[in-house]
Amino acid sequence: MAPAKISRKELLKKPDEFLTFSAKMIIFAKEHSRKFQYLGMGLLGLALLYLGINTYLNHIDKAGQEAYNIAFYALYKNTDLKNNQDKSENIEELFNRVIDEYDSSKAARLALPEMAYLNFLQGQYEESIAYYREFLDKMPDDPYQSLARMALAVCYEEKGEFEKAIETLQYLVSGRDDFFKEQAMLSIARIYRIMNKEEESNEILEDFIERFESSQFLSLAKAYLKE
Q: Residues near 52 by Cβ (< 8 Å), separated by ≥ 6?
């Protein structure tokens, strides 16, 4: 049986659902006006807090970058720091200022490998390793990760910790960057030779020759293999 039709006049008499809902919300808001005031004040407070923190962090980032630029320029124009400890220490102080005073800035994290490099030049390998490791921990997605790992391996090699150097380089061999993968494999082969592990070295070199047939370092790998 077809449902009875409702006339247009009857439809007009029925209250609009949206208007009814809106009216209920207005009444509810009036009855709880004090709570809404507190909520509004709370949201305003959160907005002001966010704005303040954001402004502060932007200021720290800018100031940190300026301090980093000063330190980096001093490093760039002094190329013979290995034989000049005083200048090296002065530049270390500049980078330390970036790390200590602007520790929440990105520049502070970028200053870590510079400090590692300066310590390496002075033969302070433990300190250098600590700075490189801190950088790797704080900047896991940084494009200079591979370069930092190469430098870290050199620090271990200088300390005579060859197994740790190889372990660090193996991480790069399993990575995606072919340039650093090539460098890492050749370095591992060289370190194995220092350790008098010629068989392991040759295995790495043979693998290298097979993987990177068009590498610019192919002739070097073949020369190592013939030694």
A: none
- Beta carbons of 162 and 191 less than 8 angstroms apart: yes
- Full set of structural domains in the chain with CATH: 143-227 (1.25.40.10)
pTM (predicted TM-score): 0.70
Structure-token match 């800035």, residue found = 105
Structure tokens at 114: 């510079």
Which single residue is written with the structure tokens 């190329």?
Answer: 79
Dihedral angle over CA of 108, 111, 112, 114, nearest 10:
180
Q: Cα–Cα–Cα angle for 174, 119, 75, nearest 5°? A: 100
Four-CA torsion 67, 70, 73, 74, nearest 10 degrees: -110
Dihedral of CA atoms 85, 91, 95, 98 in degrees, nearest 10, equals 140
Whole-number Å distance between alpha carbons of 192 and 44: 64
| Extended beta strands in 77-198, E state | none
Could you read off the pLDDT of 128-176 as tens digits, one per residue? 999 999 999 988 777 788 999 999 999 999 999 999 999 999 999 988 7
Burial of 218 (0-12, 13-18, 19+ CB in 10 A): middle
Is 152 within 8 Å of 132 (Cβ atoms)? yes
Q: Which of 126, 133, 162, 138 is nearest to 149 (CA)?
A: 133
